[in-house]
Amino acid sequence: MNPLDYLKENEAKSLEQLKDLLRIPSVSAQTAHKKDMESCAQWVADYLKKLDFKAEILDTGGHPVVFGEYHKSDDLPTILIYGHYDVQPADPLELWKTAPFDPIEENGYLIARGATDDKGQFFAHLKGAESYLKTAGSLPLNIKFMIEGEEEVQSENLPLFIEKNKDKLAADVVLVSDGSQFGIDLPAINYGLRGIAFVEVKVTGPDRDLHSGSYGGVIANPVNVLAKLIGQLHDDEGRIAIDGFYDNVYTSSDWEQNQLANLPFDADEYLATTGSPKYRGEKGFTPLEHTWIRPTLDCNGITGGYQGEGAKTIIPSWASTKITMRLVPDMRPDEICDKIEAYLKKICPDYVTLKVIKHGGGNPVQVPTDGPWLKAAAKAVKTAFGKDPFFTKEGGSIPVVETFSAVLGLDTLLIGFGQHDDNAHSPNERFLIKDFHRACQTSAALFDELSKVKV
Ligand code: BES
Ligand code: MN
Ligand code: MN
Question: What is the pTM of this model?
């Protein structure tokens, strides 16, 4: 039997196995899930071992990395497959149709936290490897799996882990499936990801909450002040108002502009998937440009004062917000964190105190749009989907991709199998079941194509 037939014959079983993986609530952000993180790592390692991989669970100082290796021959290419077994918190639970860690099938979708981000996607590559091992008895090339547990919390320990394990991780190319297609039945290979920068901002006024009758009008209200500061981060045309914010923003090439113009993008349909009444992006750019090639600034949350039942008339002591900014070439997170801090210090009135905590982030990345690895990937996508892939970018960030290039000197193939409306990081996260199966097939076809690349 050939590997693709094996996958077709075993579709039902593969889906049940993915459900098992999704039942483990591996939420990296919450300490209450530490045990689940360990069982999830164990599940992945056990699966690899059953496939004849040498598998280990490696300490990183945080949640462990699962490393698996199958060596076939020194003369064949070695690919390093990266994925993450951690998932986002499931809250708000009341917005889920079903329990987030009890996967169900509905209208062709598998619904569960982690279905598309990233369990369904990395598991497809385990199935791709399995299809060879169960039919041909061995792989057509060398594979290393590195499945981490801290992607959703900024991969804090990963750069050092990679630095320390350079030899173990040595490969010819990296493969990452943790993103999206261009649309349904519109497969894509991604050639770029935005970077990210994080800051926390806290404004403090009085040293405790005060009665707003006794002190209102004479002592500044930190919630009011923070709201105004946030309001001054953009101008009326949607541009970011921070001094020098755009200094290092690259100019999109003619090739890229042409690429963008030729994509079958339906702006109304895209808007409809969000439930939002209208677009609101930086003036002078299209929605695709807003998400792929322009930087952004967003408050992820805002806290301060009293929001409980009934009334509590106070001047709150403090207010805070967490902000992320998406970066495009050639912006750098540290530079951007410094610039937002300087700007906030400049505009913040002296009747409150301001604290900015800078958390850095990850660099934007662009990967090659040509070459033997990419050609192999395009062929594999065509085999599985019956269509040539589009070349797309992603608005999201996978900071480790830049580490692969900087520390290991490797290019990364980014083949996303999700859809933009899979509800990643949202309630009712889902993965199209047919996308899962085609991801498994792409994986098998890709191993075959990559094995023919001369190294
Ligand atoms: N899979 C996403 C990255 C992604 C998002 C790719 C959207 C393509 C489209 C990843 O799991 C993620 O959520 N990354 C974080 C990075 C952060 C925690 C450093 C992100 O983009 O917010
Ligand atoms: Mn992900
Ligand atoms: Mn994610």
Answer: 0.94
